[in-house]
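[step 3/7] fold_predict: job queued, chain A
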Amino acid sequence: MKPAKLLLLAGDFVEDYEIMVPFQALQMVGHTVDAVCPGKKKGEQVRTAIHDFEGDQTYSEKRGHNFTLNATFDEIDPAQYDALVIPGGRAPEYLRLDAKVLEMVRHFDKADKPIASICHGAQLLAAAGVLKGRRLNCYPACAPEVELAGGTFVAVDFSEAVVDGKLVTGPAWTAHPKWLARFLEVLEAHLAG
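[step 4/7] structure written:
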């Protein structure tokens, strides 16, 4: 596969696995991944949260690791990237209030570039207005936002992923194997295109 340049949108209390695993795995297969956060520079950190499924009515949350950003948000140009990765956790809840973040998401959608979103990442997609007519998955608690934004929530097992064109989505970090595999397939087809 041709190496790609990927943009990963992060924020404080992003889900630990959902940022760490894609960041490392996508680099492992030869891609460049620039992780950025509004208001933060290369070398600064975001705090992560660990969401787990322990038999309660919803996930539990614990403090995770510190994740070091490797690019500066204010210096990036979305046009220079081949695809976008949006991890979940609590970060999308407030990142969706940032106009520049929403414009970045819209750029990838309008340019028909691959977007990989997992868990609460759908909150950014909904706020950016890019879900109308799309089929996707996310953490089930975000399904009402998907539907209100004109998308169709597709219920799948927590180990599965959904592909709609160049949009690859999944419910949580438990879906990483399928979600990343499907994203790499979509990315490879896009780069070959």
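[step 5/7] annotate
The CA atoms of residues 96 and 127 lie 6 Å apart.
The mean pLDDT is 97.
exit 0
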